[in-house]
C-alpha cells in the first residue's frame, strides 16, 4: 500500500481552479485561506444582492474559483450564508465585549459600548446589513443566531449591573437588554440620516441618555 505523501494532504485535496480568461487563475490555497477567500466573496455578493438575489455562480466568479471548488467548501448557498453570519456575529460579539471590558469605569464603559456599536454600523463593509437586515431574518437558524448574540451581550451588561448594584438577576437582565437594544436601534436609525449627524456626536448623545438612566442605580459597597 502506498503511503500518503505531504503533497497528497496539501489543501485537503482541493482541485486546482481552472484557467480563467485573461490568464488569471486562483491557485491552490490552504483550506483555511480558501475558506476566508470564499467568505469574503460571499459577503460582497450578499451585501449587494441580498440572500435571495445572490447566486453561487456569481460568488464563485467573484472569488475567482470554479463552482466545484466553492461547493467543496460550502455544499449550498444556505450553508455559505450561515457560515458568513457566524463569522460576522463572532466578530461583533468580540467587538462589543471588548468595549464593555475596556475599562472598569462605568461611565466610560457606556460611552465605549455606544461608540463601538455606531462605528460597527458605519463600517464601509456594511456587515450590519447581513446581521440585522437580512432577507432571511425569519429563518429559524438565522433568528436563533441573532438571539444568541443579543443574549450574550445583554447578559454581559447585566452581569456588570448586578455586580455593581446588587439588583436581582432578572432586573439586571432587563436593564442589560434595554441598554443593548438602545445601542442597536439608535445606531441603525442614525445610519438612515445619511451622514447629516456626525458619528461621534450621535453616539455621544445616546451615551449621555443611557448613562443618565443607568447611573440612577447607584453602586453598593
* Highest-level CATH class of the largest domain: Mainly Alpha
Which structural class should the secondary elements be placed in?
mainly alpha
Named CATH architecture of the largest domain = Orthogonal Bundle
Strand content: under 5%
* Rg calculated over all Cα atoms: 22 Å
Short description:
The chain has 221 residues and is mainly alpha-helical. It is 70% helix and 0% strand.
Structure description:
The chain is 70% helix and 0% strand. It is mostly helical. The chain folds into two domains: 14-75, Arc Repressor Mutant, subunit A; 85-214, Tetracycline Repressor, domain 2, CATH 1.10.357.10. α2 crosses α5 and α6 runs antiparallel to α10 (199-214). The N and C termini lie far apart (72 Å).
Give the topology, please:
Elements lengths: L5 H4 L21 H23 L2 H8 L3 H7 L3 H24 L5 H17 L4 H6 L7 H26 L3 H23 L7 H16 L7
Helix pairs in contact: 2-3, 2-5, 5-6, 5-8, 6-9, 6-10, 8-9, 9-10
Descriptive keywords:
70% helix, elongated, mainly alpha, 221 residues, Arc Repressor Mutant, subunit A
